[in-house]
Every structure is written in C-alpha cells, then in structure tokens.
C-alpha cells in the first residue's frame, strides 16, 4: 500500500463510509434524498457485474445506481440501487440492517420540511429521558429504509458523536436487527475487529410499534466501536421477527449494505464473498474492497483504508 492511500482524517478503521438503500422507486427516492434531505448527487450509472458479484447479489448487475453525499463533503456517502419490489417486506420487522443513523443540524426544522415528502415520520423529534446527548427522529423512506435523523448535542461518556457539518450529514451508527444479539456481537468483535461498547435495556419505540408490543417493553442493545468512534448498534429483535425477504440473487430491500472502513482486509477473519478488488469512484478512491456476510445474512462491504506504517 502506498503512502498516499494511508488512512487520514475521516477515513479510518471502523468508519462508516456509506449506507446502501435498495429501492423499487428509484427516481422518486433519488429526488427525496436530493431535494428533501439536500444531499448532492455525485455519480449515476449502473451496478457493474463484478460489484454485484462482490455483494453476492448477481441479479443487481445492471441496476440503476446513484451515489450521494452531504454538502459538507466529509467522506461519507449514501448509495441508492434500483431493485424489484419484495412482497412481504415490512420495515423494522426482519433481521439485518434496520436503520442508518444520520446526524442533522436542526431536527425540528427538518421535521417541518419532511411534511408532504416521500419520508414518513414514525418517530417525531423529542428529547428522550435519560439521553441528553441527542434529539432523535425516525423516518421511513419510499424503499422501506429507516433513517434515524438525530441532532447531536454532546458526546456520550465513551463515544464521540459528530456534530452536523451540513443540514443532513454523516451516517455515524448502523443499526442492526439481530436474531441472536450475542452471536452478532461476537461476529463484529472477533471477525471484524470492532470493540464492545455499552449495553442498554430500553423501551424501544421503533421495535415496540412495529411488533405491537407495550410501550414499556424493553429491548437489549449493545454498541460496537473503535476507540471512541461508534460503529454499530446491535438490537435484539423479538421472536416474531423474520429473515429479511429478498429477490432471488438480489439485495435485501430497504437498508441493504453498510460500507465500513478497515485497516487491512487480510486481518478480517470472516470469509470474503468474492476476492478483494480495487475500485474507482469517490466511495472507493482506488482502494480494495470486499464483502462479508454476518450471522443474519447482513452484508458488510469492507473498504481497505491502510494504517500508519503501511508502505
């Protein structure tokens, strides 16, 4: 690895580089992210065959794709991929990537702007008792993806939370619905080299509403991190949750993929779904990437960032 490709600034081990949404309403979803959330469209095109193979989703080859970024240009992206509708898919009811948590500048102003848009608010902005670090809001997009749009107020005791550099900014936590919370935690820790953070038991409105549970029903979640950098929130989902339905050979609908920086791919203990390859474009910047599948079939796209001392 050359010195010019070493991890610097935003790009580092554990950093969420992108979230990919698979949507059957590509044109209107793209307009929602561009015009309502204010993201900038950087690239449009189709999914190359080798990239679809890397995702273990060969049917996605040739699908329309768009790469967007916050106007702050900080190095985080959101990618839309056109996909067929999936009968039986319901947001927040199945295992896999459940939501992308994004920092925003003014959650109350954003809530007003979402009125009449393609995003459905499932949790209006409000302060949560016991959590003084951010003001959350939850929405569902046209593709069945869930976004947590959170205005960060201050850091947590063991985690640094990013202040927004633009009205809608970086994905800073990936929320994962797990069938076996402990197994998924062990996978992220032992196979991907992430660290275990805090574990909480909370009344989780998104889960309780989706499954018709009492408002005071508590769910267990554990954070994973790298140092003080948050990475994922692993939620133990109820017994009524199901495997994510998906089209044959295609991507999971809604929140489909998380792209994660890793220092070196040869340190990843999970088997790669396809050989690593260097890829062009703003997301990859010529770096090597490869994918692995987690315990519930969730796809992690790992992008090699390098580390100080590599040559």
UniProtKB/TrEMBL annotation:
It comes from the Bacteria. The lineage of its organism: Bacteria, Pseudomonadati, Pseudomonadota, Alphaproteobacteria, Rhodospirillales. GO terms for molecular function: dioxygenase activity; lyase activity. InterPro entries: Glyas_Bleomycin-R_OHBP_Dase (IPR029068), Glyas_Fos-R_dOase_dom (IPR004360). Pfam families: Glyoxalase. The keyword Lyase applies. Residues 21-127 form the Glyoxalase/fosfomycin resistance/dioxygenase domain. Gene3D superfamilies: 2,3-Dihydroxybiphenyl 1,2-Dioxygenase, domain 1. The keyword Lyase applies. This is Catechol 2,3-dioxygenase-like lactoylglutathione lyase family enzyme. Keywords: Dioxygenase, Lyase, Oxidoreductase.
């Amino acid at each position: 690895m050359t010195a010019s490709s070493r991890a610097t600034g935003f790009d580092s081990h554990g950093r969420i580089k992108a979230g990919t949404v698979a949507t059957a309403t590509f044109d209107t979803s793209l307009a929602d992210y561009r015009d309502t959330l204010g993201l900038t469209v950087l690239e449009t095109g189709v999914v190359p065959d080798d990239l679809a193979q890397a995702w273990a989703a060969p049917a996605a080859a040739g699908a329309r794709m768009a790469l967007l970024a916050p106007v702050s240009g900080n190095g985080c992206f959101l990618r839309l991929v056109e996909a067929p509708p999936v009968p039986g898919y319901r947001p927040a009811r199945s295992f896999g990537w459940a939501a992308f948590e994004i920092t925003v500048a003014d959650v109350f102003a954003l809530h007003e702007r979402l009125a009449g848009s393609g995003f459905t608010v499932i949790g209006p902005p409000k302060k949560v008792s016991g959590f003084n670090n951010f003001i959350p809001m939850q929405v569902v997009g046209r593709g069945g993806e869930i976004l947590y749009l959170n205005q960060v107020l201050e850091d947590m005791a063991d985690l640094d939370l990013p202040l927004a550099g633009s009205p809608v900014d970086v994905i800073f936590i990936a929320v994962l619905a797990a069938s076996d919370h402990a197994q998924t935690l062990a996978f992220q820790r032992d196979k991907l080299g992430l660290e275990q953070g805090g574990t909480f038991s909370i009344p989780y409105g998104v889960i309780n509403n989706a499954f018709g549970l009492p408002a005071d029903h508590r769910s267990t979640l554990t954070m994973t991190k790298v140092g003080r950098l948050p990475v994922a929130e692993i939620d133990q989902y109820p017994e009524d949750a199901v495997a994510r339905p998906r089209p044959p050979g295609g991507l999971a609908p809604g929140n489909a993929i998380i792209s994660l920086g890793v220092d070196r791919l040869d340190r990843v203990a999970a088997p790669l779904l396809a050989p690593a390859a260097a890829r062009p474009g703003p997301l990859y910047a010529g770096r090597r990437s490869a994918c692995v599948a987690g315990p519930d079939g969730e796809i992690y796209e790992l992008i090699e960032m390098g580390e100080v001392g590599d040559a």
